[in-house]
Amino acid sequence: MAEASRSYCTSDFDYQLPPELIAQTPAEQRGDSRLLVLRGDQLETRGFADLVDLIPPGDLLVLNTTKVRHARLIGRRPSGAPAEVLLLHPGIEDAWVAMGSPGSALRPGKQIALGNDMAVETLEILEEGYRLVRFIGGTADTAMARYGRLPLPPYITRDPTPRDDDRYQTVFAERAGSVAAPTAGLHFTAEILGALRVKGVAIARIDLEVGPGTFRPVETEEIDKHPMHPERYEISAAASADIAQTRAAGGKLWAVGTTVVRALESAALEGGRVRVGAAETRLMIA
After folding, report:
1. Smallest Cα–Cα separation from 280: which of 213, 215, 219?
2. Is the pLDDT score of 260 beyond 60?
3. Nearest to 208 by CA among 152, 140, 116, 282
4. Banded model confidence at residue 3, pLDDT cuts 50, 70, 90
5. β-sheet bridge partners, residue 207
6. Which of 23, 82, 172, 183 is the most exposed place for a label (fewest CB within 10 A)?
7. Residue that wins the pLDDT comparison between 4 and 45
8. pLDDT in tens, 185-242
9. How many CA atoms lie within 13 A of 31 on its CB side?
10. Residue 215's pLDDT is what?
11. Closest CA to 263 of 194, 211, 226
12. 66: phi then psi, degrees, rounded to nearest 5
């Protein structure tokens, strides 16, 4: 008999992570990071470039090609005190769904100035504390181009640098739409991808817009009661065909990161196929 599914609690995942072990800067070169390999119950530490040796010919590597927006806006309140707005995704008409701090600066009707020529005004408070905001003096794209910063993960406590504009994007990033990078993909280089192709490993590309659900803390004791923010994903006909062909031939899929896993599992159909098109996922991997 199959083991009955269980409900996990946040306390099941308690462990000590010394702050000095949380990297604040990337490896000097992409591909130089470490790779933890699990075979059965055996753990092995390798280099990330060794991934080329681990994936057999005929298998399929699936990448998330989303690109991170410069969605973090630092402005000032009428008092002159600082405030922050993080743009999540477009809302209705020209408004955007956002989050920010302090919460008192994002009450309906309040404005946060960006430079001397633009402002963000809160229109409405939405579920889970998100805000619906609009821009005065320009568009969201203008605001991100002029004043936007790269939104680094909350566990990185330093300010972003110009180098992050390159290193906090994957080498295969295409269309901007995320507030965080699909971090498992950050370690790939063009050379590693080329070596996989030469070996006979196929590569498919999908798009999932990483949102706040990826980094917001779980605030419920029972994990399955945690509300996940919906994230949009899109799977092309070509990617779907590659997946079906690989599975039919007995090959395996190598999903690069949780975003790819969540998109593929949300779109899964019978017979090893996935649904083509755009949709949203609230899937949580527990």
Report:
1. 213
2. yes
3. 282
4. low
5. 234
6. 23
7. 45
8. 999 999 999 999 999 999 999 999 998 877 778 888 888 888 888 899 999 999 999 9
9. 12
10. 76
11. 211
12. -60, 155
d(CA 281, CA 232): 6
Q: Is the pLDDT of residue 132 over 60?
A: yes
Task: Pull the structure tokens for residue 123.
Answer: 């229109």
**In whole numbers, what is the pLDDT of the chain averaged over residues?**
92
State the Cα–Cα distance between residues 149 and 49, nearest whole angstrom: 30
* Strand bridging mode 60-64 / 202-208: parallel
If DSSP states are collapsed to H, E and C, what string results for the chain? CCCCCCCCEHHHHCCCCCHHHCCCCCCCCCCCCEEEEEECCEEEEEEHHHHHHHCCCCCEEEEECEEECCCEEEEECCCCCEEEEEEEEECCCCCEEEEEECHHHHCCCCEEEECCCEEEEEEEECHHHCEEEEEECCCHHHHHHHHEECCCCCCCCCCCCCCHHHHCCCCCCCEEEECCCCHHHHHCCHHHHHHHHHHCCEEEEEEECCCHHHCCCCCCCEHHHCCCCCEEEEECHHHHHHHHHHHHCCCCEEECCHHHHHHHHHCECHHHCECCEEEEECCCCC
